[in-house]
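Troubleshooting entry. The earlier prediction with flavin-adenine dinucleotide gave an output that would not parse, so I re-checked the input for stray whitespace and re-submitted. Clean input:
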Amino acid sequence: MTNQSLRIVIIGGVAGGASAAARARRVNAAAEILLIERGPSVSFANCGLPYHIGGEIAQRDSLLVATPKLFRERFGIDVQTDTEAIEINRDTKHVVVRRPSGDLESIAYDRLILSPGAEPIRPPFIDPNLQNVSTLWSLGDLDRVMQVIDSLAAPRCVVIGGGFVGLEVAEQIAHRGLACTLIERLPQLLRTLDPEMARPLVDEFQRNGVSVKLNTSVMGILSEGNLATSVQTDSGDCPADLIISAIGVRPRVQLAAAAGLELGPSGGVRVDDWMRTSDENILAVGDCVEYPHRVLGRPTLVPLAGPANRAGRIAGTIAAGGCCAPMRSVLGTSVVRVFGLTAASTGLTAAICDAEKISYRSVYIQAAHHASYFPGAASMTLKLVYQPDGMILGAQCVGGAGVDKRIDVIATAISFQGTVEDLAGLDLAYAPPYGSAKDPVHMAAFVACNDLADAPKIVAPDSDLSGYQVIDVRSARELEQLPLPGAIHIPVDEVLSNYSVLDPSRPTVTVCHSGKRAHVAASILKSVGFANVANLTGGMSVRSLFK
Ligand code: FAD
């Protein structure tokens, strides 16, 4: 096949599809490239949709990142919007599409790239005819939501689902000054975090006027005519003028499955490291495929924009006849903002390790995002999860500024199969307005290294302390604010002069606010002969999150 005759057809014109199309053109100036999109727009910023609700992205047009005109004029790509691919005929290498008129047409391809994305799960109790109930997955969804908001003076909004999209939507509704209730079936928001790490998000929502109902299942929706009036839950009804359902997505694999392409164990299209499906002429990328997970070592669904864009670039290269490095495995690294808090994570949580029966250890630190003496330092809680041999498994961070940076650094270390020792030795940029000479990443790694070296050992923040001699090394004022009944109080500066009042033969735990001063105290006690002394990792600040 000469370049002249190569015809690349791409189904789905947003994250993965648009990346693939532009890359294919950069690799091959002569190929004929067709981008087929069933919606009216290509390359729109689906990640930006929630921020138009709150007005942070003021203009809807700002969400249209690249237009069909730009694709045509700059890249010579034929963009066919409002056109849905309904069948793939692999024997004749044709795609059947439905035009806006309803007419069917057959389009030939040499290489086909599938990027149809995922579809939001629509619970059976949601009647699609209700005008004030929507998902938020497309520009059409956004327009429907905005129409309801604009048509009522003060709509009461209910968001169902405490994942990324639900959190972003709830934040933006409140940002707009509207009443909002966020309903989640599980006992926590955001399952990419362990429960205690997700706890501050609930407090932050409530501080900003959003009512959060955890452990609450939606049973149905009450309506009058074609308008929903309230959400029925197992703990009562919740009046609503606007309901946004964000309970998750599933990969769009119907076209691929009907064409006989192999699906993987997680339900996504099975692809190799160059995004080729079980048919060598068909590639697939984005939310519809499964990616190998870096830590779990098996295929997983990761419906995020980063993998979709990277995979699109690879598929575009390969389809256009070029060569490139393979797609790397993924970690599900993600970040979300909830008012003044940022929550980010990468790799495995402790909960996933438990479910997967992976042995792990974990430590917590509290740190300022830059030198604490420099004005404006924001605090963060960082949890590091690692194997007993030191291999890093994952991390979670919640706090103010700088959370994303720490998670990205740790994600990079995990990608290169780093250990906590590697993390402790990273040479990171530092000046007081940006960080600390010992960055929070280093601090977490130091604590993990101490843990593995038993120098001294640590105990989990939710441990039952009843069998221990507990030494609380905080100040008297801190004790008043957050008491720890049954503990012996010796402020950290008095441990060296006062340890003789303690029993060195008893198992001993030291406690402070964050674990830092308690580590100093535990180290002193260990060096003066306490055989069994440990530090409560994360201190009282993390212990209090386990309520
Ligand atoms: P999409 O970008 O969804 O594109 C698929 C396109 O294919 C759609 O336009 C669809 O109309 C079209 N299509 C489907 N079937 C057909 C067919 N048969 N024929 C023709 N066209 C078809 N990810 C992040 O990493 N960070 C975020 O902050 C983030 N926020 C998000 C917020 C929202 C509200 C949403 C909706 C998503 C967010 N995501 C985020 C997820 C991210 O947008 C997706 O992972 C990414 O867009 C997936 O790319 P894709 O190409 O697989 O699918």
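This one parsed fine. The pocket of flavin-adenine dinucleotide is lined by residues 11-17, 36-39, 46-47, 49-50, 84-85, 115-117, 136-137, 164-165, 252, 255, 286-288, 303-306, 308 (CB under 6 Å).
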